[in-house]
Amino acid sequence: LTDGPLRGKRILVTSGPTHEPIDPVRYIANRSSGAQGTAIARALAALGAEVVFVTGPADVPAPDGVQVVRVQTAQQMSDAVDAALPADAAVFAAAVADWRMAQASDRKLKKSRDGLPVLEFAENPDILARVAHMTEGRPGLVVGFAAETDDVIENAAAKRARKQCDWIVANDVSPATGIMGGTENAVVLISAEGAETWPRMGKDAVARRLAERIAGALSG
Ligand code: C5P
């Protein structure tokens, strides 16, 4: 099972949402299922890669044949990514929460005692941007994702430049596409060579095609 074009390559994949605690029983989250990141980890392992799969609390089970690191918060995901490096490539498919509580309460907020809560936020670290900007120990190939609702290619290309990643897998998540929460995806791969529009296909097929492209890049 470890045979294939990615044999001997170590690849980090982040996936799923993060949960940011408000108090011991409540949290802020998003609707990421983890389906696309899970499919990518599975496809990379199928090509022989040693995959470290850092996942938030996803709806779908983690794939077999990968090293699974389970986290809850963005900060934990960031720490787990650091612990997983170095890697030959890193794919950041997680839907990391942009914000956490400035100060999570260590006891349950109570209606009777605390009244209406006012939530104060702090910004989470941008894990992809941090890793892509590394001057030492940067993975040779850093891949980010961009979910956009308009001007997909322009916005994703700007994101690629800002975050300094090598590739951006951009998808159009405007409601009319039905992609959010669905089983299909329509993506544009943005690299230094420009924008390549892939036909609409299942998330598993997107994952296999991306894994093959990664294998090509790491061998070339
Ligand atoms: O800026 P935006 O959230 O649209 O960027 C999405 C890309 O950045 C994804 O690849 C996501 O995994 C990554 N990201 C991250 N850490 C964050 C926010 C986004 O790694 N705090």
From TrEMBL:
<keyword id="KW-0460">Magnesium</keyword>
<keyword id="KW-0479">Metal-binding</keyword>
<comment type="pathway">
    <text>Cofactor biosynthesis; coenzyme A biosynthesis; CoA from (R)-pantothenate: step 2/5.</text>
</comment>
<feature type="binding site">
    <location>
        <begin position="125"/>
        <end position="128"/>
    </location>
    <ligand>
        <name>CTP</name>
    </ligand>
</feature>
<keyword id="KW-0285">Flavoprotein</keyword>
<dbReference type="GO" id="GO:0004632">
    <property type="term" value="F:phosphopantothenate--cysteine ligase activity"/>
</dbReference>
<keyword id="KW-0436">Ligase</keyword>
<dbReference type="GO" id="GO:0004633">
    <property type="term" value="F:phosphopantothenoylcysteine decarboxylase activity"/>
</dbReference>
<feature type="binding site">
    <location>
        <position position="163"/>
    </location>
    <ligand>
        <name>CTP</name>
    </ligand>
</feature>
<protein>
    <recommendedName>
        <fullName>Coenzyme A biosynthesis bifunctional protein CoaBC</fullName>
        <ecNumber>4.1.1.36</ecNumber>
        <ecNumber>6.3.2.5</ecNumber>
    </recommendedName>
</protein>
<keyword id="KW-0456">Lyase</keyword>
<comment type="similarity">
    <text>In the N-terminal section; belongs to the HFCD (homo-oligomeric flavin containing Cys decarboxylase) superfamily.</text>
</comment>
<feature type="domain" description="DNA/pantothenate metabolism flavoprotein C-terminal">
    <location>
        <begin position="6"/>
        <end position="215"/>
    </location>
</feature>
<keyword id="KW-0210">Decarboxylase</keyword>
<keyword id="KW-0511">Multifunctional enzyme</keyword>
<feature type="binding site">
    <location>
        <position position="145"/>
    </location>
    <ligand>
        <name>CTP</name>
    </ligand>
</feature>
<comment type="similarity">
    <text>In the C-terminal section; belongs to the PPC synthetase family.</text>
</comment>
<comment type="pathway">
    <text>Cofactor biosynthesis; coenzyme A biosynthesis; CoA from (R)-pantothenate: step 3/5.</text>
</comment>
<feature type="binding site">
    <location>
        <position position="159"/>
    </location>
    <ligand>
        <name>CTP</name>
    </ligand>
</feature>
<feature type="region of interest" description="Phosphopantothenate--cysteine ligase">
    <location>
        <begin position="11"/>
        <end position="220"/>
    </location>
</feature>
<keyword id="KW-0288">FMN</keyword>
<comment type="function">
    <text>Catalyzes two steps in the biosynthesis of coenzyme A. In the first step cysteine is conjugated to 4'-phosphopantothenate to form 4-phosphopantothenoylcysteine, in the latter compound is decarboxylated to form 4'-phosphopantotheine.</text>
</comment>
<feature type="binding site">
    <location>
        <position position="98"/>
    </location>
    <ligand>
        <name>CTP</name>
    </ligand>
</feature>
<feature type="binding site">
    <location>
        <position position="108"/>
    </location>
    <ligand>
        <name>CTP</name>
    </ligand>
</feature>
<comment type="function">
    <text>Catalyzes two sequential steps in the biosynthesis of coenzyme A. In the first step cysteine is conjugated to 4'-phosphopantothenate to form 4-phosphopantothenoylcysteine. In the second step the latter compound is decarboxylated to form 4'-phosphopantotheine.</text>
</comment>
